[in-house]
Amino acid sequence: MKAPGKLAALSLTALLAVTACGGGEPAPAAQGPQPLRMSIWTSNEAHLKLFNEIAAEYRKSHPQVGEITFDPIPFENYTTTLTTQIAGGNAPDLAWILENSAPDFVGSGALVPLKSKIENAGELVPAATRLWERDGELYAYPFSTSPFGVFVNTDLVKAAGQKMPRELMKAGQWDWEHANEINKAVAAKGENGLTILNFDYKAWDNLATVWQGWGARAWSDDGGTCQFNAPEMVEAMTFLHKAIFTDKSMPGPGTAVDFFSGDTTMAVAQISRAAMLEDATFTWDLVPLPAGPKGEYAVIGQAGIGVLKKSPRAEQATDFLTYFTNAANSAKLAAYFPPARSSLLTADTMAKTSPMLNGEQLQEVVVDGIQKGVVKPSHTGQAELAQTARAALDPLWKPDADVKAVLDGVCAKIQPLLGG
């Protein structure tokens, strides 16, 4: 992997604060219909088709708006690339913002206030807006509040002679121990077991989908104390290390696999990925995350859409965001991105626009998950924290790793960055 450049190592908060200040003479007013650009991290054709349909409908009644472009940026480099664009004077008008970058973007003053602009803002679920608020103002619309679930290739489970996760759920046995046994049995037959999407032994925060079952946390609630080496985290990481290197129930480092092509038995992912199964050649199911030693739990990934203050078309971008996220369009987007609007957050409502998933799956994974879920870890200075923690965790992904020693090393590296 390439070493991060100087820009990526900068404090995102500091950079955004500088770019938010503006300065200089305003540019002359542009003539004719003006384009808008939104940075996103999906390149899925079904998602883009829906976005473009909404944009085309908006332009019918807004002739002053030119082409609306949705600009996909690869997920693994998303925030770094977006930061580079902002610092280089090529900021998009609107941008998806990852939950782990929320404290930096919201705290920096780089985003346009939205609360008075959003249609029926009072019906937004408080748990969904918490990351995007400061001093009573809303700085990004939580357009996707999506709990993680487990996609299951039921053909591979059956071929390995194992019970289906849904059978285990009914018996009160759907937990990480039983899930690991299924994937271990599949691996013994030469197939791949469990994969955690977008982790790839780099994006460690996606492991929160596992360690939360042990009650583990990356840092304390106030963000000031590292907890990577707490007993709960050591136990959770020991479980993962054994699964990878002893049980072989998870593909090891450097193994390229794709659940949606039928390469693996299970994948921890969000419901937006269901669109990739439209032409699947295998049977599949979606179930909640397995219970951990601390019981049942749910983990939520969030995406907010914000308008960059530096955009010369910020006012028009805000108006488009208002339209993009109104109740009618939120219902359409709910096919892939669970809504923050309480009026839409029911299995029956979502099932109408989510043909790939049934009401039972939506209730168990999405509706119930949002009610009890915790958001993946976020912190100011997340970019530097993420890079530092990733490098400190690298020694863990070796067969002979001393899990506790590695996690002690993580805390030694990141504690100075936490400010505690």
Automatic annotation (TrEMBL):
Keywords on record: Signal
Pfam family of the protein (one): SBP_bac_8
Residues spanning the signal sequence: 1-22
Name of the protein in question: ABC transporter substrate-binding protein
